[in-house]
Design brief:
The protein is of the alpha+beta class. It has five helices and five strands. It is globular, with a radius of gyration of 15 Å.
Length: about 140
């Protein structure tokens, strides 16, 4: 069963806390964060959300939210939101087919279609970077 972590409001997800809860997967998160900050000028900000009773990281480029990051037992997830008009372009992205398959199966949230990617391996970083580049350019 999936278990979301970082549920205690008084414990900010510092680097030390993230290392403790993610173990070896922290290195993957750190590599992704470093690459996105350096190559894509993204900013990572942690907020506690009372409605979901957990900490989420809002990842932005300037004022645009690019994706949300959540921490789970043994992995972390990135959640991007797209509109119906982006479907064709996403189909053309050179990313892993399972990401696309999950995306096309998922239920929209209002007008937004979430793309949720579960990450625990370095090899997945390139796909996330491609999705980020697309999201930044999407209108």
């Amino acid at each position: 069963m999936e278990k979301q972590l970082l549920r205690e409001q008084e414990i900010f997800p510092s680097e030390e806390v993230l290392k403790n809860v993610l173990g070896g997967v922290y290195e993957v998160l750190d590599a992704l964060k470093t690459r996105l900050m350096n190559e894509e000028a993204l900013v990572f900000d942690w907020y506690y959300y009372s409605d979901g009773k957990s900490w989420l990281c809002k990842v932005c480029h300037k004022k645009k939210t690019v994706f949300w990051l959540s921490v789970w037992d043994g992995y972390f997830k990135t959640t991007f939101f797209f509109l119906e008009r982006h479907l064709e372009s996403i189909a053309a992205l050179e990313i892993a087919e399972p990401i696309k398959e999950d995306f096309y199966r998922i239920k929209p949230v209002g007008k937004l279609i979430p793309m949720i990617v579960t990450i625990h391996l370095y090899e997945q970083i390139d796909d996330i970077v491609k999705i980020v580049k697309f999201k930044k350019s999407a209108k």
